[in-house]
Amino acid sequence: MRLAALFTLATATLASAASMPGTWKKLVHNQFASNAQLTVPAASTKTLSDDKVQAWNVHTLAEFPNYRLRVKEETKLCDPNVKQYVGYVDVTGKSDDKHFFFWFFESRRNPEKDPLVLWLNGGPGCSSLTGLLMELGPCRVNPGGNGTTLNPDSWNNEANLVFLDQPINVGFSYTDGEQVSNTVDAAEDVYAFLQLFLTTYKQYANLDFHVTGESYAGHYVPAIGHKIAEENDALKRNRLLKNSEKVEVNLKGLAIGNGLTDPLVQYEYYADMAADEKYGPILDDRDIEEMRSKYPTCKRLIESCYKWNTAFTCVPGAIYCNNAMIQPFQKTGLNIYDIRKKCDPSNPLCYSILTDIETYLNRPDVQDALGVDRQYEGCKQDINMKFMMAGDWMRPFVRDLPPLLAKGIRVLIYAGDSDFICNWIGNKAWSIELEWDGSAGFQKAKDLPWIAKSTGKQAGEFRTYGALTFLRIYEAGHMVPYDQPEVSSEMINMWIDNRKH
């Protein structure tokens, strides 16, 4: 979440800008400034007192001289029965500083042996605390934001779990300088965080590690996996040449839920999703045929982005394709993240619980416990715009996956089948078309029923070969852990333990 924040709020303006390259940035800025403001409580005026500043435990690493880890280790919010760490990675820049917020929970089962899982929400520009308090975290926010309730299906049942607010200015993360506007730079900061965290808390350094996320994390997760593997290889090569405080991250797997990973393939299947009869069709034949007729132009624009990988060649595809494939959905009044439902008018992103999360995280007592003094917003449209205008949207981060698969790093692509914005049809299509060592075997593999042990019923269907698995999850939208908490918990536990389906 929240890819469609851009799609549903700005496509008309972007379409008019397509023929006027010089005005793209101004038009997009005006659209966001006028139509896309989220409703949040008034900003907090409190500041952290000196004694609270001194309560931080500060850790550094010589090989990352501009970074430091600042941690509070006594937090008891959300799940008071497990060890928690909250804090910031502070980055000193040449002209500005950056501060990335994180929240860590130990496993409820066996923290000394259970894997370490990193969760990232998408957007780009949305806080991973959405995942914590709405989806897969140890607790779920109560209606009205007056507290939380333990989540029995949390992903920390069998994993140590960390939520990171990235890129900068997302959620409680902040900077007074320039924002990150591309996935590659964001991955650099995530890797530095992992090194600081794992060298500080060495009890987790040798655990299996998994990078997980949803939506625009279909960009983030492959890029972070690529960065980790690249740095691990460099550490192995240089181990005999010099001493290094850095650790090899024990990367075992990636999991992407309803992600945007291979736009070239995925954009072709919006029309098929609109015509799919399980929950629809949701558009009439004329609209669907018009979408199909526009895909060849969309394809040519994305191919140009894949070839040249510059803002100049990538922004046009985002403008044209989003208008052609997403705008027809706007007239339905349906929730673009779950076509079974109408969009909840109480929140611009269709879910009232997002307002509850903002209310809860802006409470003074909660902010005191977390050691923060920032106004929390779940999603920020200016970050979304910056990524789009940098050409990041259509770039082929799918290309980071074949080398990882070749190393035996397992990749799970899962998708709730009532999501429109990153629908299961497009996600399955690109996983089948992916060129890697096991392509032929994956293409020939059969789709098999997945029977959830928690319900005894068929919860979806999967295809697997070698290190790659695609899983379609029934009766779930963009945020699978929100719609199917028991099933999603069983899914991730099977995945990280590498159990057979």
From TrEMBL:
Molecular function GO terms recorded: serine-type carboxypeptidase activity
Alphabetical GO biological process terms: cellular response to nitrogen starvation; macroautophagy; phytochelatin biosynthetic process; zymogen activation
E.C. number: 3.4.16.-
UniProt xrefs under Pfam families: Peptidase_S10
UniProt keyword list: Carboxypeptidase, Disulfide bond, Glycoprotein, Hydrolase, Protease, Signal
Domain of life: Eukaryota
Signal peptide: 1-17
Keyword Amino-acid biosynthesis: no
GO cellular component: extracellular region; fungal-type vacuole lumen
Alphabetical list of InterPro entries matching this protein: AB_hydrolase_fold, Peptidase_S10, Ser_caboxypep_ser_AS
Annotated catalysed reactions: Release of a C-terminal amino acid with broad specificity
Top EC class, one word: hydrolase
Family of the protein in this entry: Belongs to the peptidase S10 family.
Protein name: Carboxypeptidase
The species this protein was found in: Spizellomyces punctatus (strain DAOM BR117)
Organism placement in taxonomy: Eukaryota, Fungi, Fungi incertae sedis, Chytridiomycota, Chytridiomycota incertae sedis
